[in-house]
Amino acid sequence: IVCEREREFTMASFSPLPPERFGRFHATREAVRSRVDELQALQAPERIWARDPTFFTDDPRHAERITQRLGWLDSPQWAKEQVERWEALRREVWENEVRDLVLLGMGGSSLAPEVLSRTLPAGENTPRFHLLDSTDPEAVEGVRRAIDPAHTLFLVASKSGTTIEVRSFFHFFYEAVTQVKGEGAATTFVAITDPDTPLAELAERLRFRKTLLNPPDIGGRYSALSHFGLVAAKLCARPVEALLADALRMRSHMLPEIPAERNPALWLGAFLGHHAMAGRNKLTLLLSPEIAPFGAWLEQLIAESTGKEGKGIVPIDLEPPTAIDRYGEDRIFVVLRLRGGMNAPLDQMTEALKGAGRPLCEIALQAPHELGGEFFRWAFATATAAALLRINPFDEPNVSEAKEATKACLEAFQATGSLPSVPSCSPDDPALARLISGLRPHDYFALCPFFQATAKRDEKFAALRRRIRDHTRNATTLGYGPRFLHSTGQLHKGGPQEGVFLQLTAQPHID
User: Fold this and answer.
1) Please, what sign has the CA dihedral across residues 22, 311, 392, 406?
2) How do the residues of the chain divide into helix, strand and coil, expressed in percent and rounded to 5?
3) Cα–Cα distance between 500 and 511 in angstroms, integer?
4) Cis peptide leading into 449, omega within 30 of 0?
5) Of 118, 209, 195, whose CA–CA distance to 161 is shortest?
6) Which is nearest to 9 in space by CA: 264, 248, 265?
7) Are 116 and 238 within 8 A, CB to CB?
8) 260-287: per-residue pLDDT in tens?
9) Which stretches in the chain have pLDDT values below 50?
10) What is the pTM of this model?
11) pLDDT at 419
């Protein structure tokens, strides 16, 4: 609920966003405007800010969960109040001659830090940043070889404090640091988690350097503007203050007193929700290369928030561009353009989409720190789109399925010494051709490799996606495991029954 003082300040200081930042809608603008009017009639902003669960779904089973997951609405201001604390930790890092910063995380605990590490400049003489969100032995060993444990700070990030991959990473590196520092090993670790979690208890027992407790009413994929998303960036002296200033500015455009036609998130949410309801649920993200990493964060936010109850929006990230007629009719497009970026191919594609009359939203940023506002805009818009689909955007009802299956496999391994066998095929098996030829018009093809991501593999998968899409007109996605289980896994299991999945595995060279 917005206090009167905030209302007075907002209305006194409010200035409309430039049209290019607000978003320009092409081909279906009038239909989207009708949805905005519908949301206005439903009092959408007022009900979101009032934490009204019935705005999203009439199912009373979801009411408590929804009211306990809307803390992100206030996270920009909360995060602004934490900056001095983060700066004090950064000075500690400097004084202790920390050369490397390693974030151990998965999904919502790692995607925003990765985005910021690849889009915002670091300060001078700051630690090198490493992200570990893969259990591939080669990925783990790669980080171990790249650092000196005696001069490294580890951020152990898990909202629940029980994420098995993160706990495994911690035990591996805690042992490595103990071999170098002995009893002082725990001082090289900082926990980021919710209050009263097993990770918080572990950090207290072992005496970590710091434990940063996040507000428990901020869900993982909505936590970009909190400890989870911003601590690593601040420790590397990235412009977190500018990022938060833009987030606060964007937030002011979504408060209840702002008319719907001037609320950029309502328009974007109406665009997403309207087209998903009409069967155009393949959201194709086209970004300037300098801010392209933001697409991975959007992918998790949208897939995990909307992919349930047989419904959902399928985000298509980093798919190579093609001729317009190779895109199926189930596509919509969002262009995020950074001023001054290498935009020639993006601009050419944008004009082609306009000329073909494809549903398109264009958003332009002046500088990378404006991703701060985009974190907030897209969270609000995704929640709005979910409300149009009548689903709860703040739960993950099918994520536990993979966890339970993994637990059963591990228990079988402990009992028998071997893992259960599963059917597989070689790359030249005719079954692969049948898998692709069996794609229906609205299906999407998901590549799910369970090995370390590398630039060379990314390039090969991009070529494969291009060939499949151009041959079939079906959308394609790529997600490395186990990372995708914490990102698009909910959509794969609970979303529309339109996915065709190809799992790829490889024997690691080391273990």
Assistant:
1) negative
2) 55, 15, 30
3) 30
4) no
5) 195
6) 248
7) yes
8) 999 999 999 999 999 999 999 999 999 9
9) 1-5, 8-12
10) 0.95
11) 82
How many Cβ atoms are within 10 Å of 385's Cβ, its own excluded?
A: 28
Give the per-residue pLDDT at 9. 46
**Sign of the alpha-carbon dihedral angle for 105, 110, 114, 116:** negative
| Look-up of token digits 């900082």 | 190
- Type and span of the H or E element at 314: strand 314-316
Name the 3-class secondary structure at 22.
helix
What domains, with CATH codes, occur in the chain?
Answer: 4-58+258-389 (3.40.50.10490), 73-244 (3.40.50.10490), 399-505 (no CATH)
The answer to whether residues 269 and 384 touch, using CB atoms and an 8 Å cutoff, is yes
Element (H, E) at 19: helix 19-22
Cα–Cα distances (Å) from 126 to 79, 95, 129, 431, 481, in that order, read 21, 11, 9, 50, 30
Which pair of tokens denotes residue 441? 């018009």
Residue type (1 letter), 60: P
- pLDDT tens readout for residues 6-64: 554 444 456 789 999 999 999 999 999 999 999 999 999 999 999 999 999 998 999 99
Polymer length in residues for the chain: 511
What stretches of 262-420 show up as alpha helix (H) in DSSP?
264-277, 294-306, 344-356, 371-389, 399-416
